[in-house]
Protein backbone atom coordinates (compact mmCIF):
# COMPACT_ATOMS: atom_id res chain seq x y z
CA UNK A 1 0.00 0.00 0.00
CA UNK A 2 1.23 3.47 -0.87
CA UNK A 3 2.25 5.71 2.05
CA UNK A 4 0.47 8.56 0.28
CA UNK A 5 -3.02 7.42 1.21
CA UNK A 6 -3.42 10.47 3.37
CA UNK A 7 -5.97 13.20 3.95
CA UNK A 8 -5.40 16.90 3.32
CA UNK A 9 -7.80 19.44 4.81
CA UNK A 10 -7.86 23.07 3.63
CA UNK A 11 -9.93 25.64 5.51
CA UNK A 12 -10.78 29.30 4.95
CA UNK A 13 -12.26 30.97 8.01
CA UNK A 14 -13.31 34.62 8.11
CA UNK A 15 -12.68 36.31 11.47
CA UNK A 16 -14.16 39.69 12.40
CA UNK A 17 -11.93 42.28 14.11
CA UNK A 18 -10.40 40.18 16.90
CA UNK A 19 -7.27 39.03 18.69
CA UNK A 20 -7.71 35.25 19.00
CA UNK A 21 -4.03 34.51 19.71
CA UNK A 22 -1.71 37.20 21.05
CA UNK A 23 2.02 37.42 21.49
CA UNK A 24 3.97 38.30 24.64
CA UNK A 25 3.19 42.00 24.20
CA UNK A 26 -0.56 41.47 23.79
CA UNK A 27 -0.59 42.15 20.04
CA UNK A 28 -2.15 39.72 17.57
CA UNK A 29 0.46 37.27 16.33
CA UNK A 30 1.69 38.05 12.82
CA UNK A 31 3.93 36.83 10.02
CA UNK A 32 5.30 38.68 7.00
CA UNK A 33 4.54 36.77 3.78
CA UNK A 34 5.04 38.12 0.29
CA UNK A 35 6.32 41.35 1.81
CA UNK A 36 3.09 42.12 3.68
CA UNK A 37 1.91 41.50 7.23
CA UNK A 38 -0.59 38.71 7.88
CA UNK A 39 -2.37 37.90 11.11
CA UNK A 40 -1.41 34.51 12.55
CA UNK A 41 -2.62 31.88 14.98
CA UNK A 42 0.07 29.52 16.22
CA UNK A 43 -0.35 25.84 15.40
CA UNK A 44 0.08 25.06 19.12
CA UNK A 45 -2.87 27.30 19.92
CA UNK A 46 -5.18 25.90 17.24
CA UNK A 47 -4.30 22.28 18.07
CA UNK A 48 -5.09 22.88 21.74
CA UNK A 49 -8.39 24.46 20.74
CA UNK A 50 -9.29 21.34 18.78
CA UNK A 51 -8.08 18.66 21.18
CA UNK A 52 -9.86 20.27 24.15
CA UNK A 53 -13.07 20.89 22.18
CA UNK A 54 -16.27 19.12 23.19
CA UNK A 55 -16.30 17.49 19.75
CA UNK A 56 -13.04 15.59 20.23
CA UNK A 57 -13.41 15.09 23.98
CA UNK A 58 -16.82 13.49 23.33
CA UNK A 59 -15.13 10.53 21.65
CA UNK A 60 -14.57 9.14 25.12
CA UNK A 61 -11.01 8.06 24.34
CA UNK A 62 -8.16 8.34 26.86
CA UNK A 63 -6.37 11.71 26.83
CA UNK A 64 -3.02 12.73 28.26
CA UNK A 65 -2.38 15.40 30.89
CA UNK A 66 0.05 18.23 30.12
CA UNK A 67 1.42 19.71 33.33
CA UNK A 68 4.44 20.81 35.34
CA UNK A 69 2.60 20.17 38.61
CA UNK A 70 2.58 16.37 38.77
CA UNK A 71 4.46 16.51 42.08
CA UNK A 72 1.79 18.71 43.66
CA UNK A 73 -1.04 16.41 42.59
CA UNK A 74 0.75 13.33 43.93
CA UNK A 75 1.56 15.01 47.24
CA UNK A 76 -2.04 16.16 47.57
CA UNK A 77 -3.26 12.62 46.93
CA UNK A 78 -0.92 11.14 49.53
CA UNK A 79 -1.86 13.70 52.20
CA UNK A 80 -5.54 13.05 51.53
CA UNK A 81 -4.86 9.38 52.24
CA UNK A 82 -3.42 10.09 55.68
CA UNK A 83 0.31 10.56 55.17
CA UNK A 84 2.01 13.44 56.94
CA UNK A 85 3.27 16.31 54.77
CA UNK A 86 6.98 15.43 55.09
CA UNK A 87 6.48 11.78 54.12
CA UNK A 88 4.10 12.67 51.30
CA UNK A 89 6.64 15.16 50.01
CA UNK A 90 9.42 12.54 49.93
CA UNK A 91 7.27 9.91 48.18
CA UNK A 92 5.83 12.39 45.69
CA UNK A 93 9.34 13.55 44.79
CA UNK A 94 10.49 10.00 44.02
CA UNK A 95 7.47 9.38 41.79
CA UNK A 96 7.46 12.72 39.98
CA UNK A 97 11.18 12.51 39.17
CA UNK A 98 10.48 9.49 36.96
CA UNK A 99 8.97 11.94 34.46
CA UNK A 100 11.80 14.44 34.25
CA UNK A 101 13.92 16.88 36.20
CA UNK A 102 12.23 18.85 38.96
CA UNK A 103 12.97 22.39 40.08
CA UNK A 104 13.56 21.70 43.78
CA UNK A 105 12.68 25.28 44.79
CA UNK A 106 9.20 25.16 43.28
CA UNK A 107 8.77 21.38 43.17
CA UNK A 108 7.68 21.64 39.55
CA UNK A 109 9.06 19.98 36.45
CA UNK A 110 11.47 22.26 34.63
CA UNK A 111 9.41 21.78 31.46
CA UNK A 112 5.86 20.81 30.60
CA UNK A 113 5.45 17.04 30.71
CA UNK A 114 2.89 15.17 28.61
CA UNK A 115 1.73 12.29 30.76
CA UNK A 116 -0.16 9.55 28.96
CA UNK A 117 -3.39 8.34 30.50
CA UNK A 118 -1.73 4.96 31.17
CA UNK A 119 1.04 6.74 33.09
CA UNK A 120 -1.35 9.01 34.95
CA UNK A 121 -3.40 6.06 36.16
CA UNK A 122 -0.25 4.12 37.12
CA UNK A 123 1.06 7.08 39.16
CA UNK A 124 -2.07 7.38 41.27
CA UNK A 125 -2.47 3.62 41.60
CA UNK A 126 1.03 3.61 43.10
CA UNK A 127 0.17 6.59 45.33
CA UNK A 128 -2.83 4.69 46.69
CA UNK A 129 -0.70 1.58 47.27
CA UNK A 130 2.14 3.26 49.17
CA UNK A 131 -0.34 5.24 51.27
CA UNK A 132 -2.28 2.09 52.15
CA UNK A 133 0.88 0.11 52.97
CA UNK A 134 2.61 3.08 54.61
CA UNK A 135 5.88 2.55 52.77
CA UNK A 136 7.94 4.23 50.11
CA UNK A 137 7.71 3.27 46.43
CA UNK A 138 10.07 0.48 45.36
CA UNK A 139 12.50 0.89 42.48
CA UNK A 140 10.73 -1.65 40.28
CA UNK A 141 7.45 0.19 40.84
CA UNK A 142 9.02 3.51 39.95
CA UNK A 143 10.69 2.05 36.85
CA UNK A 144 7.33 0.81 35.57
CA UNK A 145 5.65 4.23 35.66
CA UNK A 146 6.94 5.71 32.38
CA UNK A 147 5.41 3.78 29.52
CA UNK A 148 4.15 4.11 25.94
CA UNK A 149 0.76 5.74 25.43
CA UNK A 150 -2.15 5.52 23.03
CA UNK A 151 -3.81 8.63 24.49
CA UNK A 152 -5.76 10.12 21.58
CA UNK A 153 -4.24 13.61 21.69
CA UNK A 154 -0.75 12.08 21.57
CA UNK A 155 -1.80 9.74 18.77
CA UNK A 156 -2.99 12.72 16.78
CA UNK A 157 -0.48 15.45 17.59
CA UNK A 158 2.45 13.56 19.08
CA UNK A 159 4.42 14.01 22.27
CA UNK A 160 8.05 14.64 23.16
CA UNK A 161 9.51 13.17 26.35
CA UNK A 162 12.91 14.79 26.79
CA UNK A 163 13.80 12.49 29.68
CA UNK A 164 13.09 9.35 27.65
CA UNK A 165 13.13 9.66 23.87
CA UNK A 166 11.92 6.07 23.49
CA UNK A 167 8.52 7.25 24.72
CA UNK A 168 8.19 9.96 22.07
CA UNK A 169 5.20 9.69 19.75
CA UNK A 170 5.53 10.97 16.20
CA UNK A 171 2.50 13.08 15.30
CA UNK A 172 0.14 11.55 12.74
CA UNK A 173 -1.42 14.95 12.04
CA UNK A 174 0.43 18.05 10.82
CA UNK A 175 -1.15 21.47 11.28
CA UNK A 176 -0.07 24.75 9.71
CA UNK A 177 -0.13 28.11 11.45
CA UNK A 178 -3.39 29.70 10.28
CA UNK A 179 -2.50 32.86 8.34
CA UNK A 180 -4.72 35.53 6.84
CA UNK A 181 -4.87 35.52 3.05
CA UNK A 182 -5.21 39.30 3.19
CA UNK A 183 -2.87 42.07 4.34
CA UNK A 184 -3.69 43.26 7.85
CA UNK A 185 -3.21 46.46 9.79
CA UNK A 186 -3.16 46.15 13.56
CA UNK A 187 -5.50 48.64 15.22
CA UNK A 188 -6.11 49.45 18.86
CA UNK A 189 -9.30 49.72 20.87
CA UNK A 190 -8.77 52.22 23.68
CA UNK A 191 -11.45 51.49 26.25
CA UNK A 192 -12.60 53.09 29.48
CA UNK A 193 -14.75 51.73 32.29
CA UNK A 194 -17.29 53.80 34.20
CA UNK A 195 -17.42 53.50 37.99
CA UNK A 196 -21.13 53.00 38.74
CA UNK A 197 -20.79 54.46 42.24
CA UNK A 198 -19.23 57.74 41.17
CA UNK A 199 -21.42 60.82 41.14
CA UNK A 200 -21.60 63.82 38.84
CA UNK A 201 -19.39 66.13 40.88
CA UNK A 202 -16.14 67.44 39.43
CA UNK A 203 -14.11 65.43 41.90
CA UNK A 204 -15.76 62.22 40.70
CA UNK A 205 -15.19 62.82 37.01
CA UNK A 206 -12.91 60.50 35.06
CA UNK A 207 -12.82 56.85 34.15
CA UNK A 208 -12.82 54.08 36.71
CA UNK A 209 -10.36 52.17 34.55
CA UNK A 210 -8.86 52.21 31.08
CA UNK A 211 -6.81 50.04 28.78
CA UNK A 212 -6.04 49.10 25.20
CA UNK A 213 -6.69 45.96 23.17
CA UNK A 214 -5.11 45.50 19.77
CA UNK A 215 -6.83 43.63 16.97
CA UNK A 216 -7.08 42.96 13.24
CA UNK A 217 -9.33 40.97 10.94
CA UNK A 218 -9.10 38.66 7.97
CA UNK A 219 -9.72 35.35 6.27
CA UNK A 220 -7.42 32.66 7.68
CA UNK A 221 -6.09 29.76 5.64
CA UNK A 222 -5.34 26.58 7.58
CA UNK A 223 -3.92 23.32 6.29
CA UNK A 224 -4.10 19.97 8.08
CA UNK A 225 -2.63 16.68 6.85
CA UNK A 226 -3.49 13.29 8.33
CA UNK A 227 -1.23 10.28 7.79
CA UNK A 228 -3.88 7.59 8.17
CA UNK A 229 -1.45 4.69 8.62
CA UNK A 230 0.39 6.53 11.43
CA UNK A 231 -2.82 7.51 13.21
CA UNK A 232 -4.04 3.90 13.10
CA UNK A 233 -0.72 2.75 14.57
CA UNK A 234 -0.67 5.47 17.25
CA UNK A 235 -4.17 4.59 18.48
CA UNK A 236 -3.13 0.99 19.05
CA UNK A 237 -4.71 -0.20 15.79
CA UNK A 238 -8.21 0.89 16.79
CA UNK A 239 -9.99 1.19 13.44
CA UNK A 240 -13.21 2.76 14.73
CA UNK A 241 -11.36 5.30 16.86
CA UNK A 242 -9.10 6.24 13.93
CA UNK A 243 -12.14 6.94 11.76
CA UNK A 244 -13.98 8.80 14.53
CA UNK A 245 -10.90 10.90 15.33
CA UNK A 246 -10.58 12.10 11.73
CA UNK A 247 -14.28 12.95 11.48
CA UNK A 248 -14.15 14.79 14.82
CA UNK A 249 -11.00 16.66 13.80
CA UNK A 250 -12.68 17.99 10.65
CA UNK A 251 -15.75 19.06 12.62
CA UNK A 252 -13.65 20.75 15.31
CA UNK A 253 -11.45 22.53 12.75
CA UNK A 254 -14.52 23.93 10.99
CA UNK A 255 -16.46 25.03 14.06
CA UNK A 256 -14.13 25.92 16.96
CA UNK A 257 -11.93 28.97 17.48
CA UNK A 258 -9.30 30.02 20.05
CA UNK A 259 -10.71 31.80 23.07
CA UNK A 260 -8.39 34.84 23.13
CA UNK A 261 -10.42 38.02 23.79
CA UNK A 262 -13.55 36.17 22.63
CA UNK A 263 -15.83 37.98 25.05
CA UNK A 264 -14.43 41.30 23.80
CA UNK A 265 -14.81 40.62 20.08
CA UNK A 266 -17.31 37.75 19.85
CA UNK A 267 -15.05 35.88 17.42
CA UNK A 268 -16.90 32.58 17.46
CA UNK A 269 -17.00 31.73 13.77
CA UNK A 270 -17.32 28.78 11.39
CA UNK A 271 -15.22 27.96 8.35
CA UNK A 272 -16.49 29.52 5.14
CA UNK A 273 -14.81 26.92 2.97
CA UNK A 274 -13.63 23.37 3.63
CA UNK A 275 -11.80 21.24 1.09
CA UNK A 276 -10.84 17.66 1.90
CA UNK A 277 -8.46 15.79 -0.40
CA UNK A 278 -8.43 12.00 0.00
CA UNK A 279 -5.47 10.02 -1.31
CA UNK A 280 -2.60 12.23 -2.44
CA UNK A 281 -3.15 15.72 -0.97
CA UNK A 282 -1.70 18.79 -2.67
CA UNK A 283 -0.04 19.94 0.58
CA UNK A 284 0.01 23.40 2.16
CA UNK A 285 -1.11 25.82 -0.56
CA UNK A 286 -0.64 29.13 1.20
CA UNK A 287 2.28 30.33 -0.91
CA UNK A 288 0.82 28.95 -4.14
CA UNK A 289 -2.54 30.62 -3.59
CA UNK A 290 -1.96 33.62 -1.33
CA UNK A 291 1.62 34.84 -1.72
CA UNK A 292 -0.10 37.88 -3.22
CA UNK A 293 -2.80 39.03 -0.76
CA UNK A 294 -6.43 38.29 -1.54
CA UNK A 295 -9.12 40.55 -0.10
CA UNK A 296 -12.32 38.48 0.15
CA UNK A 297 -13.53 34.95 0.80
CA UNK A 298 -14.98 34.17 -2.62
CA UNK A 299 -11.78 35.20 -4.39
CA UNK A 300 -9.77 33.21 -1.84
CA UNK A 301 -11.81 30.10 -2.67
CA UNK A 302 -11.04 30.54 -6.36
CA UNK A 303 -7.32 31.03 -5.73
CA UNK A 304 -7.21 27.98 -3.48
CA UNK A 305 -8.97 25.74 -5.99
CA UNK A 306 -6.74 26.94 -8.82
CA UNK A 307 -3.58 26.36 -6.79
CA UNK A 308 -4.70 22.86 -5.76
CA UNK A 309 -5.54 21.89 -9.34
CA UNK A 310 -2.23 23.27 -10.63
CA UNK A 311 -0.23 21.25 -8.10
CA UNK A 312 -2.25 18.11 -8.80
CA UNK A 313 -1.75 18.45 -12.55
CA UNK A 314 1.97 19.11 -12.26
CA UNK A 315 2.63 16.14 -9.97
CA UNK A 316 -0.03 13.74 -11.23
CA UNK A 317 -1.72 13.54 -7.83
CA UNK A 318 -4.61 11.13 -7.51
CA UNK A 319 -7.17 12.27 -4.99
CA UNK A 320 -10.88 12.46 -4.33
CA UNK A 321 -12.11 15.96 -3.47
CA UNK A 322 -14.99 16.76 -1.13
CA UNK A 323 -15.94 20.39 -0.52
CA UNK A 324 -18.17 22.57 1.62
CA UNK A 325 -18.52 26.17 0.45
CA UNK A 326 -20.77 28.46 2.47
CA UNK A 327 -20.76 31.38 -0.04
CA UNK A 328 -21.76 29.01 -2.84
CA UNK A 329 -24.20 27.03 -0.67
CA UNK A 330 -22.39 23.89 -1.74
CA UNK A 331 -21.87 20.78 0.39
CA UNK A 332 -22.26 20.28 4.14
CA UNK A 333 -19.96 19.68 7.07
CA UNK A 334 -21.68 16.37 7.80
CA UNK A 335 -21.16 15.08 4.26
CA UNK A 336 -17.53 16.19 4.20
CA UNK A 337 -16.67 14.61 7.55
CA UNK A 338 -18.52 11.41 6.63
CA UNK A 339 -16.63 11.08 3.33
CA UNK A 340 -13.33 11.42 5.18
CA UNK A 341 -14.43 8.83 7.74
CA UNK A 342 -15.40 6.36 5.03
CA UNK A 343 -12.05 6.86 3.35
CA UNK A 344 -10.22 6.19 6.62
CA UNK A 345 -12.24 3.01 7.12
CA UNK A 346 -11.32 1.79 3.64
CA UNK A 347 -7.62 2.44 4.23
CA UNK A 348 -7.32 0.89 7.70
CA UNK A 349 -9.23 -2.21 6.53
CA UNK A 350 -6.18 -3.03 4.41
CA UNK A 351 -3.58 -2.33 7.07
CA UNK A 352 -2.05 -5.15 9.12
CA UNK A 353 -2.96 -5.19 12.81
CA UNK A 354 0.14 -5.06 15.04
Major beta-sheet overview: 7 strands, antiparallel
Elements, N to C (H/E): EEEHHEHHEEEHHHEEEEHHHEHHEH
Number of strands: 13
Q: What is Rg?
A: 24 Å
The poorly predicted ranges are: none
Helix content: 25-40%
Structural class: alpha+beta
Give average pLDDT, whole number. 94
Q: Quote the distance from N terminus to C terminus.
A: 16 Å
Strand-residue fraction? 15-25%
Number of helices: 13
- Number of domains as seen in the coordinates: 2
- Quaternary structure: single chain
Q: What form results from the Cα inertia axes?
A: flat
Q: Would you write up a description of this structure?
A:
By secondary structure, this protein is of the alpha+beta class. The chain has two domains: 6-61 and 170-195 and 214-348, no CATH class; 66-148. 37% of the residues lie in helices and 21% in strands. The chain has 13 helices and 13 strands. It has helices at residues 43-51, 54-57, 70-80, 85-96, 117-133, 139-143, 152-157, 228-234, 239-255, 262-265, 286-290, 297-315, 333-348; strands at 6-18, 30-33, 36-39, 65-67, 102-103, 108-109, 113-115, 173-175, 179-180, 187-193, 209-226, 273-279, 319-325. Strands 1, 8, 9, 10, 11, 12 and 13 form a seven-stranded antiparallel beta sheet that branches. It has a two-stranded antiparallel ribbon with strand order 2-3. Strands 4-7 form a two-stranded antiparallel ribbon. Strand 5 (102-103) and strand 6 form a beta hairpin. Helix 3 (70-80) runs antiparallel to helix 4 (85-96) and helix 9 (239-255) runs antiparallel to helix 13 (333-348). The two termini are 16 Å apart. 39% of the residues are buried. The model has no long low-confidence stretch (mean pLDDT 94).
